[in-house]
Amino acid sequence: MYNRDREMHKATCADCKKECEVPFKPTEGRPVYCKDCFQKHRPAQRDRY
Ligand SMILES: [Zn+2]
Predict the structure, then answer these.
(1) Which mean pLDDT values do the consecutive 10-residue runs of the chain (49 residues) have?
(2) What's the CA-to-centroid distance between 15 and ligand 1, angstroms?
(3) Of the candidates 5, 36, 10, which has an alpha carbon nearest to the alpha carbon of residue 22?
(4) Ligand 1 center to residue 46 CA distance, Å?
(5) pTM to 2 decimal places
(6) Which protein residues have their CB within 5 A of the ion that is ligand 1?
(7) What gap in Å lies between CA 46 and CA 35, rounded to an integer?
């Protein structure tokens, strides 16, 4: 269920400092991660699909 027309926002990954685009507006004071680092940083979840 991904909307390809979703607005992307340029951001700098807080981990690898790479420039990336996120489908949400980066919030000041909150780290933004690229896709790769987001996988690493997201909390471990017991429920997987
Ligand atoms: Zn990164």
Answers:
(1) 74 94 88 89 72
(2) 5
(3) 10
(4) 24
(5) 0.64
(6) 13, 15-16, 34, 37
(7) 20
3-state secondary structure of 37: helix
- Whether 30 and 15 have beta carbons less than 8 Å apart is answered as no
Instruction: Count the neighbouring beta carbons within 10 Å of the beta carbon of residue 11.
Output: 18
Structure tokens at 29: 């004071």
Predicted confidence at residue 4, as pLDDT, reads 63
The runs of H, that is alpha helices, within 1-49 are 35-41
Residues in Cβ contact with 45 at an 8 Å cutoff, skipping those fewer than 6 apart: none
Q: Count of residues for the chain?
A: 49
Structural domain count of the chain: 1
Residues of the domain holding 37? 1-49
